[in-house]
Write a structure and sequence with these properties.
CATH architecture of the largest domain: 3-Layer(aba) Sandwich
Radius of gyration: 18 Å
Helix content: 40-55%
Oligomer: single chain
Number of domains: 2
Largest sheet: 6 strands, parallel
CATH superfamily of the largest domain: HAD superfamily/HAD-like
Length: 228
């Protein structure tokens, strides 16, 4: 199978989101005067993942998440003096961190050299993702950038992909594939519209029985072996 249109998730597929998120969260706690610890970050990470999962399910909007996640999180810890700009500050720090997974830029460059059409496909916050793409210098590898905030739909909603397809010149569904680390957004989204997929699975997690995934790969080399 020859794939021309390569949809690529960003967070934890291209960006090292764990590293950037931890840096940004630590700077945020310093900004508001709350003591940082790795355990506190783990608590926040779990809480934040639950909120983003609610967005995937359609039970929470992105604007609701941005308005409430930090006030609610810190108020649960008994810290009620919460500045209004907390989420803006956090996302600015996240954008400044700009960490890539090792080998990510070479991976994108190789695909570009083989004249593949590269399509960023992200549920992230639009200004933050654009800043990170620019900060890391990888924005020019992508022919199209699809971010849920602009499309109006989040992965795994089929409409995220359907709206993306409409914007791609000479798009051929049979030559398209989705690459991502998330079972609940990337792989579920591809499954929902019968789009071929590569599950980027560096930690060798178990594949759910109810999810059709075309390929699995533990690293960028294995993905390239599939695509070129």
């Amino acid at each position: 199978m020859t794939y021309q249109y390569i949809f690529i998730d960003l967070d934890d597929t291209i960006f090292d989101f764990q590293k950037s998120e931890q840096k940004a969260f630590k700077k945020l706690t310093e900004h508001i005067g709350f003591p940082y610890s790795d355990d506190l970050f783990k608590q926040f990470k779990q809480y934040n993942q639950q909120l983003w999962h609610q967005i995937e399910l359609g039970t929470l909007t992105k604007s609701e998440l941005l308005a409430t996640r930090f006030p609610n999180f810190f108020e649960q810890l008994g810290f009620s003096v919460v500045p209004d700009d907390m989420d803006d500050y956090f996302r600015d720090q996240l954008a400044e961190a700009g960490d890539l997974i090792d080998g990510a830029e070479n991976f994108l460059n190789t695909l570009q050299q083989h004249q593949k059409t590269l399509l960023a496909a992200s549920n992230g916050v639009y200004p933050t993702q654009i800043k990170r793409l620019n900060k890391t210098g990888i924005i020019d590898y992508f022919d199209y950038i699809f971010i849920s905030e602009k499309l109006g739909f989040s992965k795994p909603d089929a409409r995220f992909f359907e709206e993306s397809f409409k914007q791609i010149n000479n798009f051929d569904f049979e030559q398209a594939i989705m690459i991502g680390d998330s079972l609940t957004s990337d792989m579920r989204g591809a499954h929902n519209i019968q789009l071929h997929s590569i599950w980027y699975n560096p930690h060798q997690k178990q594949q759910p029985d109810d999810l059709t995934i075309t390929y699995q790969a533990q690293n960028f080399k294995e993905i390239l072996d599939i695509l070129i």
